[in-house]
Amino acid sequence: MKKTYPDAAAALEGLLFDGMTICAGGFGLCGIPERLIDAIRDSGVKDLTFVSNNAGIDNEGLGKLLRTRQIGKMISSYVGENKEFERQYLAGELEVEFCPQGTLAERCRAGGAGIPGFYTKTGVGTIVADGKETKEFDGEEYVLERGIRADLSIIKGWKADEAGNLSSERPRATSTSRWRRPARSASPRSRRSSRSEASTRTASTSPAST
Question: Between the CA atoms of 55, 105, 167 and 194, what dihedral angle is there, to the nearest 10 degrees?
């Protein structure tokens, strides 16, 4: 299986389609896969569901895809610095599923491990639990959260080898590894060479600088 590609567009070739779900790595604007986001924008795919810590800011990160109206739904824990996001949400143009950060990370981990759902105390008694099943364990109430499965994960790494092994730098490792787990395919991008693994297929970009 080919593990290296000349650019982000080549790494994503054959993986993108309208209505797909994509997990995007990074925390805020730190460690985001900028070139893969640009390639998705340039591809013209639409009605996308993105699972990410945040929605970027205006014209940066996933904010680029909001500006081009390619995102139909966001599953995020924080979206407070994007005015276009706010406008689309308040206008009913964008579906939003808010999820506590720790729960979001565990939903991704669970999906990648084949676990369809799990119970957590986080969000019990708040709007986070509205419409969700609850259950009592040892006298405490818990809410059922579904694992997340995605069609593709896009992540940014510090370095990689031609066999597809990707490593991340310092805190980025925490905000990168969780996002690749739920995906049927992963497209990592590295500053040096290229490639990582995913559930069934791995794509990768070539040596690149940020």
Answer: -50
Task: Report the DSSP pairing between strands 117-120 and 140-146.
Answer: antiparallel
Q: Whose CA is closest to 76, among 57, 67, 92?
A: 57
Q: Which CATH architecture best describes the domain 9-118+148-196?
A: 3-Layer(aba) Sandwich (3.40)
Where are the chain's structural domains? 9-118+148-196
Give the tens place of pLDDT for each residue, 161-172.
787 777 776 655
Among 130, 202, 110, 125, which Cα is nearest to 160's? 202
Task: Count CB-CB contacts under 10 A for residue 44.
Answer: 10
Report the predicted TM-score, pTM, of the whole model to 2 decimal places.
Answer: 0.81
In single-letter form, the type of residue at position 40 comes to I
pLDDT digits (tens, 9 = 90+) for 151-193: 999 988 777 778 777 777 665 544 555 555 555 555 554 433 3
For 171-190, give one letter per residue: b (16+ CB within 10 A) or e.
Answer: ebeebbbbbbbbbbbbbbbb
Which residue matches tokens 């981990």? 109
CB 120 within 8 A of CB 145: yes
Degrees (nearest 5) of the Cα angle 45, 11, 3?
150
